[in-house]
Amino acid sequence: MVVLRKLPGMPGWPAALGLRLPQKFLFLLFLSGLLTLCFGALFLLPDSSRFKRLFLPRRATASASSSSSASSSSASSSSTRDTDLPRSPPAAAEPRHASPAAPRRLREKLRTTARMAGPPARTAPGARQQVQGGEGRPEPNTGATPARQTRAPFRFDYERFRRSLRHPVRGGRPGEDPETRARRMKIKEMMKFAWDNYKQYALGKNELRPLTKNGHIGNMFGGLRGATVIDALDTLYIMELEEEFQEAKKWVEKSFDLNVVKRRASLFEVNIRYIGGLLATYYLTGEEVFKSKALELGEKLLPAFNTPTGIPRGVINLGSGMSWSWGWASAGSSILAEFGTLHLEFLHLSELSGKPGFREEVMNIRRVLNRVEKPQGLYPNFLSPVTGNWVQHHVSIGGLGDSFYEYLIKSWLMSDKKDLEAKKMYDDALEAIEKHLVKKSAGGLTYIAEWRGGILDHKMGHLACFSGGMIALGAEGAGEERRQRHMDLAAEITNTCHESYARSDTKLGPEAFRFDAGSEAMATRLSERYYILRPEVVESYMYLWRLTHDPKYRQWGWEVVKALEKHCRVEAGFSGIRDVYTTTPTHDNMQQSFFLAETLKYLYLLFCEDDVLSLDDWVFNTEAHPLPVNHTNFKAAVQQ
Ligand code: DMJ
Q1: Which of 5, 62, 236, 541 is spaced 20 to 30 Å from 160 by Cα?
Q2: pTM of the full structure
């Protein structure tokens, strides 16, 4: 050390103190300990400390505080809830454990610790920095497009992409029977009615309140507006409601503001509705405005991934980038169905921007999930974004888990069946579900139970009814025995979900139905009797129709159309109902945006020829927004 160097002509200052050798040694030891202590203490000072700012760069101080606050978030715990039920109202101030963007070095360090404690760390961190400066940079080859080596300007050739599709997007319309056409036209009329009323009474708000004839904003979208506009765009386009599509597009161009966002948003909901809706509409129309809004919004979601493991938190402030876990989520955990339902959209954000960071973030989620130990092969619904370990052993193919499984099989399909890792994860998960959760009721109905630390809860949520369609889709590509078994399972589950509709007085299904205490496919609790215009049952009808052409699925779909008209159509739109077991139900005064994105789209497609949004070319995200299959011809459109 410089201060102890002996100067010529002068005794060293420990010597000047008259110390002997062992004493000198002890003195030096003491001095170096003291210096280490002083320097180390700098890290413990609050961020605002002047000393700290003098010695450490600003970003490092911010991250140190975020890491400690991140760990403290995992200590808070609350009750579990359905992923898309209205959220707990936000507290006035941002929670203490909110996490600002952690810098790359710190995340790496924390990840090393997490790796020792549980699942392995990500290898491609710092996506935000890479996304912002990512154009033309070399990138690791993660499957979808070849590694980029040069700085050539990135371009997505839309015309080339359109030419690569195997079927005309809105179908070829060969001769069809008049009844099917009339039914399809009826559904188109319902869409126009839902849109016209939204436009008249609530344009720019998130949903329409059809009884009070006003708009609803809610607290899921962080200040973003127009959820119904964005969710409706591709349905209007597919149904050839040209004028209405132009109205929606004009609103996006003139009024869809991404910079007013100050409050907290659900990462999952913004992704599936807004990013999904914008991406799909861009791919359908080639209009640049949809692409640029999707990319801009996508970048705003990235700070949510700045956690020690890279597993994003569920809530994000789109203005500041602060993120945190839902107050109701067990011990500061992230929700499987939320962080597991980003993959499809994020891959397309990378495809369209040439920026690899989006893909890297979701590939990292895949890595963490792939390597963490699964109880009995099952995926619990709550994972800590700090340690990467499961927080609670609740497993469900309905709310909190559902679309994670859906995105595994759809990742495989969207990759033109090249993403074998996703297929294997899906196959393994389904095998565990078949083994532990699939049950048959006394009356012979097949259902998928929920699992709470080894104890079965014999209930199925309406949300879980999407699984009939998913299992049918995934049956493809399996060996013959397995294919048949999965097709049978898909048909049986869809039949059970149909029974939950058929056994109600309104012919609409309840939010959850049970198979215990003598009950079969019926809600037994008052709180589970409502129907909020959800799509999952007709979604399965649509897939089963396309994959089997059994006419019963069209018949069942038509029963739903009649029931919606009878019980949900009100003077100014469609409304959910509070009790499916009474023919004079009260309305909940809410026209959900997913009614236009999903329920009406799936019903319409059920009465279309198979080449309309063909399953050869498109994969539907979990909000029914179509994203193109990344086949060889699609890749040719990505030019760098
Ligand atoms: C939709 O927002 C999506 O389908 C989501 O995956 C689950 N629930 C709603 C509709 O019920």
Answers
A1: 236
A2: 0.81
